[in-house]
Amino acid sequence: MTDLDRLTAEKYVLLTTFRKDGRAVSTPVWAVRDGDALAVWTVTDSGKVKRIRRDGTVTVAPCDVRGRPLGAAVPGHAVLCGPAESDRVRQLLRRKYRLLGRLTLLGSRLRRGEAGTVGIRITLDQ
């Protein structure tokens, strides 16, 4: 089983981004497979988006809902998705997380609008 297969099978993954001074900031997020990459979804003005915009270096590890790691972290590179790609990530999340995913995405769209969230595509280092 590849790292990508292992991570996409998890309900939550711990996405770690890095500040300018090198300090790690970790956040548990939902993740889905998007072709040969891992995709996550977040609020457009979140800290992780700002850090990825500056430097796409990340690590990803399986975790529980509270962000406690359940396995080894895998290094990767993250890029922010455009509107069409972000919509595809939302569709993939709806499919994987079923009712909870649909309700969460609907609530987010009502609060923030479509532009209020963005997809993040993560290519794992091999």
TrEMBL record:
Domain of life: Bacteria
Alphabetized UniProt keyword annotations: Oxidoreductase
Signal sequence annotation: none
Gene3D superfamilies: Electron Transport, Fmn-binding Protein, Chain A
All copies of domain Pyridoxamine 5'-phosphate oxidase N-terminal, residue ranges: 7-86
GO CC terms: cytosol
GO molecular function: coenzyme F420 binding; oxidoreductase activity, acting on the CH-CH group of donors
Protein name as annotated: Pyridoxamine 5'-phosphate oxidase N-terminal domain-containing protein
Organism: Micromonospora rifamycinica
Phylogenetic placement of the source organism: Bacteria, Bacillati, Actinomycetota, Actinomycetes, Micromonosporales
